[in-house]
Amino acid sequence: MKKIKIMTMVIAVGLCFAACDDMFEPAIENQGDLETRLKEPSYAQGLIGSAYASLPYSYQGAPTSDLATDDAVHNDPADNYARMATGSWASNNDPLSQWTDRYAAIQYTNLMLESADKVKWADSLALRTMFADHFKGEAYGMRALQMFYLLRAHAGLVGGELLGVPIHEASEDGASNFNVERPSYSDCVAFMLADLDKAMELLPFEDGNITAEQLPEKYKKIGGVVDQYNRAFGDHMIGRVNGKICEALKSQILLYAASPAYAKSGYTWEQAAQAAAAVLKHIGGINGLDPNGHTYYCNKDELKNLTAVKDPKEIIWRGDVQNINTLESDNYPPSILGNGRVNPTQNFVDAFPMLNGYPISDNNSGYDPKNPYVGRDPRLALYVVLNESTQGSEGKTIVTGVYGDNADALNRENKKSTRTGYYLRKLLRDDINLNTGTNQNHYVARIRYTEIFLNYAEACNEAYGPTGEQGGCGSAYQVIKKIRERAGICANTNDPYLKDIADANDKAKMRELIRNERRIELCFEGHRFYDLRRWSTTENILPELTATAGGMEISKDASSGALIYKKIEVDPRAYTGTSIYGPIPYSEIMKFGNLKQNDGWR
């Protein structure tokens, strides 16, 4: 981490805060010395505002790291993720690096923790305590979140030992010692979990206005009243870190810690299952699965009526609603004025089972390679624009086959047309017309309940097998059955493929199925690259991580007009065992001799 002089940091706080004045008002000014300014409520709030401004979620949920996997390619080979996947990933060229932004955010959270009790938030002791509790709770939760993304990007093996990243428990200035050794991955996990526990002690499970009868006893004892509580924790605080989000973060952290790549941490699948169950018990376990959760991004009535104080049933945490068409402009096919950027691969398309639940490779599936999209899992058509399907508000037919007469066709125009024979539908709305400049509501789904259900199913299967369960939230078999039924697979039937796995208590086959369901349900939301790596080890890298990204060339028989389907190779994936763990930035290794690089990286 670069040495940050404190006044430079304060200027940065002010700039970031100004960009977030819809959440934090009034905007702060860059005046006075640090100690003086940190005692002023509006300025102090800017610290936590800056941490929010640098949240590690992609803009409007746009696919990023998925472009470096077997699920997608970019139609511009010069894209950073495309170049990374094909051999340009290095410690001095790392589009996945989180080092600078995450440590900057941690600096803000540490300053918030150090100043919260000094700030005169209000004249009343009770209200001062409430505000201090809220901001400290947010800072603890936010620090854990930032650490999780640092670990995901930069933890790794050093001489065979699983190391994390430097832990910064206090704010730093130009005199601080940055030349420190990396702690163990296990120590980092313990630090994050402790932060989340502290956050949950200080924060409500959910923010929002309450009644006098609901006022926590700890605030009654110091003379607090409900109006004060609602100023500190009420409706205007919704959307910020709370106890529910902290519980979900615990599930994410422990799932990774238990995974093969990080198993040396000593954390277990049982702990991961318990953490996921703690989240799901609040919604009644598998009965709480949102029947429309898999189409959250295009549920029109829900999006139209969404307010700042309301979340869809599927959502644990989301970004603000924005009325835009950015994703559509980037990813619609060129015939409807899009740039066709993200192209799903044939590898991804082949992951969708048949409607009867069997993988297309199974003899019982009924899959016909001459009609490859017939009788498939309905999610395929929901998430991918297939040849001769429609997209956009006018229902334009998109021909990706080489027989097409415009730029939608396979490889017709450089950096414009699809390179795989497919365009993206997931995350996009179909009621936008780029020709007229139509905008529609979108939001970033930061954490979804479906993700936690899949965390739970994976951890339960590893800990207890297909039919074991934790905390009354159902078994892995029951969760996956419910998710597949929601998609339209074997609805109200036994789902014979899944049932056979459960009846045989086949943990390995259930693992394969859970991973495939996770691939489908969370596609293009930034999970796939990290999932493939955490499921791998340096000795046993998953073949999917190195699989060449493929596509489908569709032509017409000259005499009969029948479509002919031919699978093609599009982009290699140049990963090795070294790629299981990302690098420490080269610039940091050069500056600090005690900061060791992960094995295999320079």
Cα radius of gyration in angstroms: 25 Å
Distance between the amino and carboxyl termini: 17 Å
Oligomer: single chain
Low-confidence stretches: 1-32
- Summing up helix and strand content along with how strands pair, one would put the structural category as mainly alpha
Provide a count of the helices: 22
In which order are the strands of the major sheet placed? 1-6
Form type: globular
Description:
The chain has 602 residues and is mainly alpha-helical. The chain has 22 helices and 14 strands. The protein has a two-stranded antiparallel sheet with strand order 1-6. A two-stranded antiparallel sheet has the order 2-3. Strands 4-12 form a two-stranded antiparallel ribbon. The chain is globular and about 85 Å long. It starts with 5 loop residues before the first helix and ends in an 11-residue tail after the last helix.
